[in-house]
Amino acid sequence: MRGKKSKLKLAQEEAEASINKTNEKITDLGEHTKKLYENLTTIQKNFNDIRNIPSDKYLEYEKLKKIRLNWRQQAEKIESDYRDANVKNAGTGVAGVGAGVAVAAFGPTAAMGIATTFGVASTGTAISTLSGAAATNAALAWLGGGVLATGGGGMAAGDAFLALAGPVGLAIAGVALVGSGILLWKSKSDNDRLEDIFTLISKRDVRSYDLAIVELNERISRIDDETPRLDEAIEKISTFGLDYEKMTEAQQYELGAYVNLMNSSTQLLVNPIMGLKPKYSDEDFEKYEAARKSSLPDGQKRSMIVSLSNLLYRIKLDDTDRKLLWKSFRGNKKFLTAMEMTKKDFDFSILETIDDALKYKYSLE
């Protein structure tokens, strides 16, 4: 007879189920954004064919065109990176999609869903705690989050922590860290205390995923409302002729309204889903740094502080908890290797700084 599941295991299973539901909804969003992007591209072409458009309107839709191009490039990069990772890790059991993950065949629509979910700044930079390839990899690791639950045959320790540090702050972080040996303490009381901490993390993130699913549904509903309006605009513009100066005043006014429609529709592509934004970011740490006016860690130690602040956000810890976490992280070779730090580098001041940085963020909320 199999033993009773621990509360941590139950919380992690609930978290993984929430992640899978969110993945399904992201893929659904990708289907809708694909149609939205196609309509926006068509209406953009219609505008490009019109001569003598006033400079203010021209500059506005050129700006929107650039934002959409950046979004498309990000989606294509996510898809490309995912396929490259699958080829690189084929047969190794590392990265990619694992059992229990809703997205079995990653494709353009899923990539579009991820690009929409994480958002794109006006510069085309992914909005996340990381940047460049690291941000993309973290997004992919999250989409394939279920593979972490396979333990030793799942994602490598470095990839596991990369995912934990990424845009979402994995609810199944506990699984990844258990798999890398962080909870293997001789003292049952210490193990129980650590399990309590990671159970709280899982439950907190499940609430975030549930809210994100509501937000994703609202985004899809808004896209469904905008799409027929774009269809109508495309049809109407084709009847206006190709010279703005020869259009009626009513037609010119309507074109202006369509630029506003393009703007609102473009935001549906590029605005991030707030429920999946980092709980603690580099920007948060920069505000803390400016307020403290003191010399704070930089480089890899700074990155670790931001990552662990994201992990421990709104988790109540006392001094005993912090010391136990410190010893656990410090004594975990896989964790330290993943973070490119030595045992000596991981001093207790890191946990103290995290505590102070989080208190400062809470004071601003």
Summary?
The chain has about 375 residues and is an all-alpha fold. The chain is about 65% helix and about 0% strand.
Write the layout of secondary structure elements.
Layout: H1 7-48, H2 55-88, H3 108-118, H4 132-143, H5 157-164, H6 173-179, H7 188-237, H8 249-270, H9 282-292, H10 299-312, H11 319-330, H12 333-338, H13 349-364
Helix pairs in contact: 1-3, 1-7, 1-8, 2-3, 2-4, 2-8, 4-5, 5-6, 7-8, 10-13
Structure description:
The longest helix is centred in the middle third of the chain and has 50 residues, at 188-237. The chain is elongated. The protein is built from 13 helices and no strands. It is mostly helical. It has helices spanning 7-48, 55-88, 108-118, 132-143, 157-164, 173-179, 188-237, 249-270, 282-292, 299-312, 319-330, 333-338, 349-364. Helix content is 67%, strand content 0%. The protein has 2 domains: 7-272, no CATH class; 282-364, no CATH class.
